[in-house]
LacI family transcriptional regulator (Mesonia aestuariivivens), 688 residues
Amino acid sequence: MKRKITLKQIAKELDVSVSTVSKALKDSREISIDTKDKVKAFAKLYNYKPNNIALSLKNRKTKTIGIIIPEIVHYFFTTVIQGIEHVANEKGYNVIICLSNNSFDKEVLNLEFLANGSTDGFILSVAKETQQKEDYHHINEVISQGMPVVMFDRVIDEVICDKVIISDKHGAFEAVQYLIDQSCKKIALISTVDYVSVGKLRTEGYQEALITNDIPINPELILKIEDVDHSEERIEAFFSDKDIDAVFAVNEKFAVNAIKALTKLGKKIPDDISVIGFTDGVVSKSFIPSLSTVNQHGEEMGAKAASLLIDRLEDKVHEQSFQTTVLNTSLIIRDSVKRKTDSL
Amino acid sequence: MKRKITLKQIAKELDVSVSTVSKALKDSREISIDTKDKVKAFAKLYNYKPNNIALSLKNRKTKTIGIIIPEIVHYFFTTVIQGIEHVANEKGYNVIICLSNNSFDKEVLNLEFLANGSTDGFILSVAKETQQKEDYHHINEVISQGMPVVMFDRVIDEVICDKVIISDKHGAFEAVQYLIDQSCKKIALISTVDYVSVGKLRTEGYQEALITNDIPINPELILKIEDVDHSEERIEAFFSDKDIDAVFAVNEKFAVNAIKALTKLGKKIPDDISVIGFTDGVVSKSFIPSLSTVNQHGEEMGAKAASLLIDRLEDKVHEQSFQTTVLNTSLIIRDSVKRKTDSL
DNA sequence: AACACCAACTCTAACGTTTTCGTGTTGAAA
DNA sequence: TTTCAACACGAAAACGTTAGAGTTGGTGTT
């Protein structure tokens, strides 16, 4: 077992000082060609690589970005990570990922831990519990310590920092508008409880689309699900006595469960009822019928978040002003929607 | 902007030495109660937290585990990460995730980078390209530097370290045996090319099951797919002229595409043809018909890998001997298989 | 011969922490 | 009064690195 070699060991071997070695390796012209060659050869031979930790301590920067997300077993988040990772690596940054598991306490711990020198800045999407509690002291704390923070997807208006979001409201609006354009009139909504910001916004988009088209909002057609794990039963029960011709669901799971429930009730998708979901995941593509969705462009979101953060870290943004980037969604129409032209 | 406070600053404020502050905070009995109280109060007030980087440098350990995986937008890997994260956090370790994107070069870079002080050890699943190249010098390099490595899923026999795998062969065997038990005789296999170790092993399991049951192996019924992205067309073409009563696919995507292709060809699943896939992902559960699969227990795998690694890091394993943990798969039978009893 | 100057180094401090060893003050036993 | 332990604290080194400020010894100028 040959431990990693250090400058000190090289210096000792070659009988020069540590600083000579350091400078030689950095091609400083304080050092003679001879010595440089000797040092470089030796370093190469022993595969010398500077110790990151020591560099971090010295430079007071780690070249590492901390990502804190609610969960990782989730297609959207993984695409965001992919986007972050790509940009970060390109610019010489590394990525530490921590999961909050939607727990406020774990989010606080992660943030505190990573803030103690491990990372230069954060990209985060807050836990459900945090949104519920409305306690953001931990985020404000790290910001006040001078660490840049970029929030994405589930952002907090009260926290002042850069943000990247999609136009949830507009995406939902477009989806519902599309359904209306296909002559749907009785459109049900399956959403989450309101403290989840995205759920709320998508609900607003749904409502706005109805209002714009002079369709009255019928609260009977709106289902808000608290317990995601048992959504299937809830949705099934919900549909049993409803007369509808379309469903807009705020996520993929709800959309799939809606189709399942409706199929059970003897409805044909898309002939009897059209369905559009949110988030374009693996399931949407492969499901039969393939699911129409609002694409969130997770990778783009991650890339944007990463470059915002890195710009701050490298002081490319001089101002104190923070920006909120709103990414456009795009509607992907697949087989779960009955198109108007289909009936021609 | 109040920067994080350091021992030195506390010492200066309270007019004592740095060592006194350090000792006071650690409740050393070298320090008087009075001083301790004073220091602790001050530290609390200014929310002092020791700097991880400095600690890492001093202790020569980072309490961080490096995970290197081929891709993150992949259900199985996210479950493994989940398992690792859980165990690691419980034991006070943090997790850095790097993606190789199945590229050999990126895997090497990641490994080199993280090995220079950033992590204490690695958990990794090698890139496809690495398996193809059969070049493992980078992994052996970090091992020889004294960093423990645990490989999972896609492991390399030639690299000597702890490993966690599932019984790919046996899982495949069981699945195919199950199909045979349901009276299937003409079972097709959709696999990957052989240099992907898991594809090879699952193929072997398939073959062994046939042999055990005196069913001749028909190469015509075996499809090996190189280009995963265009698997759908390949599978469709493959099935067009085959007479079969069951399909075993080595992953979820192939299984889904098989069902789609067969449906297109007018076959009914499971009535005409039964299908079993590998990996129990989101798609399997929600697909219609829901997919029978071999469950890989990713979370368990991650948990096991993490505890193996941490045991090594904390010298709980004295021996030089490395172990390979083989986790059992379990067969999940859902609607995509026609059961024998169904026909009664 | 005195001086300046340059090349080619070495020394030192610094990043934030812990730990070993040293040291001055007290109070009590001899 | 001397001696010595106990107490409470400080100094310094160490982890690995870098950058700026010294330090040599030799050459060239006048």
